[in-house]
Structure formats: structure tokens, C-alpha cells
Design brief:
By secondary structure, the protein is α+β, with helices and mostly antiparallel strands. Helices cover 30% and strands 17% of the residues.
Length: 200
């Protein structure tokens, strides 16, 4: 399948970002059953709520709880149904207690994104290795325990080799959102660098 320039750009960005990483309860469990999370679950990243440099949502209706933990300087445990995304092509979803002790009940998703929507490329917990050989858990488990495996710039994870301008450019040009948002000069430069690296 031929990739669009944006898909090539996303692949390159994720290569650099992830190469630094060498991978009531019964009701919530029912609502977040594996077959309930589908391609359609993931849409335009900018339709989610921006917190710091990433975006959050909650599939279980507790957006307020998700935002509170995401904004907390001291951390906390994200409520079931929380969705966290830094770039359009990757997501984390907080599952019901007992889903995966090793990942603090997070499920990792790698997505193919395009104008028609999302397609789940890979999903799971401790054994998810993306298309570039990076294991999601190995990266996120380096976050300080109080931050529930969320890697910000100061939570203990290894730094990723793409800068904030590049991240913002990917977010603003998410093809699922329709028209891209206007990019600053810095973001345009970052996008151009990523496109050059991808050969697009």
C-alpha cells in the first residue's frame, strides 16, 4: 500500500520519537471491553482536550477526572477510560483494574491515520512493539511512579529526539481533522525537517 506524504512523515517522526525507547469497576470493564475499542474510537487529536503538550479524553465519561490527573504537578492515577495522545499515530487507553499489572492497566495503540480516519495497527500491553522495533512499555515504565506511566518532559522517561515544534506540527496537521491549522514559522521548519527525513 502506497503511503501518503503525511503517513511517511508520521512514520519518520515516530521512528525518531520511539527509537529513544528501546515498548464502578465491573461496569467500566464492560464499557471498555476489547471489542468496544475500535478504529472509530480514535479521531482527530485536536478534538481532545489539550493538556501541556499532549491531548486527553475519556471513553467512560470521566473527562474531568482525566484532566485533573493530567494537570496535577504531583501526579495521580488516571481514571478508567482515559485516553492520552502526544502524536496522532499513537495512543494509550486506561483499562479496568486487572487488565495488566505490568502496564498499570494501560493499553498501547499504534495507529495508521489518514483523511478517512484511523486504523489500529497494533494494540496490547507489555508486548506491544511498534513497526520501528520500539517497545511502548520499556519507554513508559521509566516515568516516575506517581505519574502513572505518562512521559512528560520531566517525569523520568528518556527524552525523545523530536522537538516541541515538530510535535505541534504533527498535531496541527492530523489528516483526520480535515483542514490543518496554521503553522508558525518554527513549526513549518520542523515539519519541513521531518518531511526531508522521510523523503516525502
Amino acid at each position: 500500500m502506497r503511503r501518503t506524504p503525511h503517513q511517511l512523515l508520521m512514520a519518520t517522526a515516530l521512528t525518531f520519537a520511539l527509537s529513544a525507547c528501546a515498548k464502578p469497576a465491573e461496569q467500566a470493564a464492560e464499557q471498555l471491553a476489547s471489542d468496544a475499542i475500535t478504529d472509530a474510537t480514535f479521531g482527530c487529536i485536536r478534538d481532545m482536550t489539550a493538556v501541556d503538550r499532549f491531548f486527553v479524553a475519556n471513553l467512560d465519561g470521566d473527562l474531568e477526572g482525566t484532566i485533573a490527573v493530567a494537570r496535577s504537578e504531583t501526579g495521580g492515577t488516571f481514571p478508567v477510560g482515559s485516553v492520552v495522545q502526544l502524536v496522532p499515530g499513537e495512543a494509550m487507553v486506561k483499562r479496568a483494574p486487572g487488565f495488566s499489572k505490568e502496564t498499570n492497566d494501560w493499553e498501547f495503540f499504534e495507529l495508521d491515520v489518514g483523511p478517512a480516519g484511523s486504523a489500529i495497527r497494533k494494540r496490547g500491553h507489555a508486548d506491544v512493539v511498534n513497526r520501528f522495533g520500539g517497545n511502548c512499555l520499556e519507554c513508559h515504565q521509566k516515568a516516575a511512579p506517581e505519574f502513572d506511566m505518562i512521559c512528560s518532559t520531566d517525569h523520568g522517561c528518556d527524552p525523545i529526539p523530536i522537538n516541541d515544534a515538530m510535535i505541534r506540527a504533527l498535531q496541527k496537521t492530523d489528516p483526520r481533522c480535515g483542514i490543518a491549522e496554521e503553522l508558525s514559522a518554527e513549526e513549518q521548519e520542523g515539519l519541513a525537517q521531518l518531511m526531508a527525513l522521510s523523503g516525502a
